[in-house]
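Bug #77: duplicate submission created two jobs. Keeping one. Sequence:
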Amino acid sequence: MMEGQFRYHTRSGWIEVICGSMFSGKTEELIRRLRRAQIAKQKVEIFKPRIDTRFSSTHIVSHSDLAIPSTIVESAQEIILLAQDAEVVGIDEVQFLGMEVLAVVEELANSGKRVICAGLDQDFRGVPFEPVPQLLAIAEYITKAQAICMVCGAPALRSQRLSSSESRIQLGAKDSYEPRCRHCFIPPKDLTK
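Kept job's structure:
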């Protein structure tokens, strides 16, 4: 092979996805990774969709009350401009940003940034929650977090909705959802796949 045939990037970007059910520790893991990047003195920018108003309008907050300041965005496209100077980009509740987040995340990673996304991979029906399945396909690193089933104690990968709402998006916490394993999960009868 000829010398110089391969080009190595000194600042290669990549995509990390943290997914799982509600109460599985996705946001906690996202915060942990972002804090480590901050400790390493990397320039970090953190985002969450405007729709996520459950705990704070200025922070990403886990169910265990860990928090880190974040910027609210209406659309994924805003992240490109707001993260221009960042080395590490964190995005929580990525499922609420729609399919346009795929191109945004690719552009950020291609420009040399480490992009860490956290979100639900299934909705309350147990159906893949776009765009997370597509993000899994393009990510270099994937973490599938598991909760503990509230019925039997087995590993839980599904979010059981406790209300009768049929809307795909219903914000809530322990009052609205609980983690369930494959065996204990009861999909809505009228909305099954």
